[in-house]
Design goal:
Elements (H helix, E strand, L loop, with lengths): L7 E4 L5 H11 L3 E6 L13 E2 L2 E2 H4 L6 E4 L5 H13 L2 E4 L5 H4 L4 H7 L4 E6 L14 H7 L20 H24 L4 E5 H7 L2 H10 L16 E5 L4 E5 L3 H10 L14 H6 L1 H12 L4 H10 L4 E3 L3 H5 L2 H5 L3 E6 L3 E6 L23 H10 L15
Parallel strand pairs: 1-2, 1-6, 2-5, 6-7, 7-8
Antiparallel strand pairs: 3-4, 9-10, 10-11, 12-13
């Protein structure tokens, strides 16, 4: 048994936010059918690297799905889509506003023909406002939301995050909203429309920085690897690499000062309290930097952890993926792909004691399941969503 056994998800999305959302639902056991246009999801071409002709980008966010191709530019394709919608529990789409209405499959149609369906709409700018009609791209939303303005070194230009953080977080918000709507359906018996957008996400993830701006009325700045409200909370250069140091309170700072050979720092009125250290950021960072550079990263990590001061080495991606902790948590999943052989990807990032997430299906090749799904629709639409018996269809 899985957490979403029996839940049927129709995924009309492409690129990242939507496919990530549907993959999370698939990891929890939902039966996900991914619908692609004849040319396929854009991310199939986003390489190198490739495995078996499939881009690693696509492979990383599309497991646990069946894949079909429908040409929704014609009436036959839209008729098949309507049949699929009527049998599902969740519909996820990231079309421009009004696309499903244009096809005759909007909210009014859903209420009449598929009232059980939870519809999740993922857009660039939300359902209203002067930009609602525009398409959304993570990079642009990182810029417009203010995220880029607070990322980068002091005095540098704006910098985007190293991954598509707005897309990724939007996918997570979408999954949360869908699960909430499914739970509400137990009481109402009805599905509902939920919407998320990259713009809403970009503003939301400003979090404490937005709170600072709203309370102070002052511009938000860039602090490099530092923190606007906590000092020391940044990277420092050790003798052989970079060390991340995160002193969260004054007690930790006193322990750090003792270990660093400068117990007097904990009594210095310029450093004793976090608020003092924030005001005197440059002084504190310079003093600590002169000490950190004298020892190796591993020496600092071992010593600091013994006295309860949060710290860590600044790893490369390859080093992080090879970490013993990564292995212990089972964070690398392996699954057999029909073209690429064994595909390795990041496993589900959560555990559940009674209904654990599972990796059951490799990301589908383009149109891999079209024939069987279309045949089922024409013979018996309900059979498309018939739950496979244990061990079948996986």
């Amino acid at each position: 048994m899985t957490a979403l056994s029996g839940i049927r998800v129709l995924d009309l999305t492409r690129v990242l936010a939507g496919p990530l959302c549907s993959m999370i639902l698939g990891d929890m056991g939902a039966d996900v059918v991914k619908v692609e246009p004849p040319g396929g999801d854009d991310t199939r071409a986003w390489g190198p690297p490739h495995a078996g002709g499939e881009a690693a980008y696509y492979l990383g966010i599309n497991r646990n799905k069946r894949g079909i191709v429908l040409d929704l530019s014609n009436e036959d394709g839209r008729a098949l889509l309507a049949d699929l919608i009527q049998g599902c529990d969740v519909l996820i789409e990231n079309y421009k506003l009004g696309t499903l209405d244009k096809w005759g499959l909007g909210d009014a149609w859903l209420r009449e023909h598929a009232p059980q369906v939870v519809r999740c709409s993922i857009t660039g700018y939300g359902q209203k406002g002067p930009k609602a009609h525009l398409p959304g791209y993570d990079f642009i939303l990182q810029a417009e939301s203010g995220l880029m303005s607070i990322t980068g070194e002091v005095g540098s230009g704006p910098v985007k995050h190293g991954v598509a953080i707005v897309d990724i977080t939007t996918g997570l918000y979408a999954a949360i909203a869908i699960l909430g709507a499914l739970n509400a359906r137990h009481e109402t018996g009805l599905g509902q429309s939920v919407s998320v957008s990259l713009y809403q996400t970009g503003i939301s993830v400003l979090c404490n920085v937005a709170a600072n701006a709203l309370v102070s009325g002052k511009p938000s700045g860039r602090f490099g690897n530092g923190h606007p409200n906590i000092v020391p909370y940044r990277t420092f250069t050790a003798s052989d690499g970079e060390l991340a140091l995160a002193v969260g309170n004054d007690q930790q700072f006193a322990r750090f000062a003792e270990l660093a050979g400068h117990p007097e720092w904990a009594a210095d009125p310029r450093m004793a309290k976090n608020s003092d250290r924030v005001v005197n950021r440059a002084l504190v960072d310079d003093a600590i930097g002169a000490v950190i550079t004298q020892r190796a990263v591993s020496d600092w990590v071992e010593a600091l952890r013994k006295v309860g001061v949060p710290c860590g080495a600044v790893n490369s991606v390859q080093t992080a993926l090879a970490e013993e902790q990564t292995t212990a948590l089972g964070l690398i999943a392996e699954i057999e792909h029909p073209l690429a052989g064994i595909v390795r990807s990041i496993a589900p990032a959560f555990t559940m004691s009674l209904t654990p997430p599972t990796v059951r299906r490799a990301p589908p090749t383009l149109g891999q399941h079209t024939a069987e799904v279309v045949a089922s629709l024409r013979h018996d639409p309900a059979s498309v969503w018939a739950s496979p018996r244990a061990g079948e269809g996986e």
